[in-house]
């Protein structure tokens, strides 16, 4: 119902904005412009919760790994696979959107929403800046990337503590993230009004061109996700584990259905565990470790979506993205994609650092949020397929457990 309400807010905002643009009606224009403060409040609320949510989620995810020496080869292979597959996902998203935007009409967004491109640092200055002298100052100034580095280091150190102390800190972080997730839900309940307040004023000034561009955005995301599955996930599963694409997709159908319908891979964990062990022959030990971890940290579909959204919003706001800025955006997207919480549209909420990296206004997130239901379903399905592939591949690379593998049909 919430997603329907958000979609309704988008549709009403488009109707009012398009009506004001087409007819020049004074009262429609006043309604569109008068709703702008609601949009500002919504964006402020989203930005308010981004930093603590990212900190608690990434801390719990990394600390839960435990002592890296104990995890050994399984942990190393898993994290390497998580990280390596995110880079092509982001690149595919950016590349697909860049091609698709050739068919979009150039839009002049309101100057009040546009920002200048920040001066790019040298690689040395950028790396030095990732280690904050004062993490609290970094948090208060909105410098999320240095805060993520600090959080990751503390989480890694926490993983080496005695079990009682480690669990105490992890439970505290997980409880905090649950409270923040609840707060996100409260904020999302105001999204219909907030989206209306952000879309209506913009549409009143831009007209039909914005609606056409949004359709192109959704199509490009879908194409990018299909390319990622076709050329990354499915070939790896076939070449390493010997499972054909047809069998793999058939074996993961239940988990994909749950993830897509709920737009949450966390909600699909029980089904994912069952199908990973029973249908795909992964040992229970590997599945119990990697499926929940993947649901917390491995979302290449979300990374692809974020990469596409950066290019799309940069196009809307007329922000040039040179190759140097592309690298910064990919790094920012790579890091924040590891912190996406199991909340509908959380991939949109956590995009602020990547947008800041290329100078795109954060207010553009509301435009994406209003149409996010369909892309969210698509990327959730791809996320759960990628998460199951991690368990399959690591199980094969490490020799698996005691489960008997099913016969692999040569489909």
Overview of the molecule:
This protein is mainly alpha-helical. The chain has one domain: Proton glutamate symport protein. Helix content is 76%, strand content 0%. It has 20 helices and no strands. The longest helix is centred in the middle third of the chain and has 34 residues. The radius of gyration is 22 Å and the shape is globular. The C terminus is likely disordered.
The third-level CATH topology is Proton glutamate symport protein
- Tell me the radius of gyration: 22 Å
CATH structural class: Mainly Alpha
N/C terminus separation: 40 Å
* Overall mean pLDDT: 77
> What is the helix content?
over 70%
Q: Which regions are unreliable across 5 or more consecutive residues at pLDDT < 50?
A: 111-122, 401-411
SSE layout and pairing:
Blueprint: H1 2-23, H2 26-34, H3 36-63, H4 68-100, H5 123-129, H6 135-140, H7 144-158, H8 163-189, H9 191-206, H10 208-241, H11 245-251, H12 253-262, H13 269-278, H14 284-297, H15 300-316, H16 323-337, H17 346-349, H18 352-358, H19 365-370, H20 373-397
Helix pairs in contact: 1-2, 1-9, 2-9, 3-7, 3-8, 3-9, 4-10, 4-15, 4-16, 4-20, 10-15, 10-20, 12-13, 12-20, 13-14, 14-20, 15-16, 15-20, 16-18
Would you kindly provide a brief summary of this structure?
The protein has 411 residues and is mainly α. It has helices at residues 2-23, 26-34, 36-63, 68-100, 123-129, 135-140, 144-158, 163-189, 191-206, 208-241, 245-251, 253-262, 269-278, 284-297, 300-316, 323-337, 346-349, 352-358, 365-370, 373-397. It has a single domain, classed as Proton glutamate symport protein (Orthogonal Bundle).
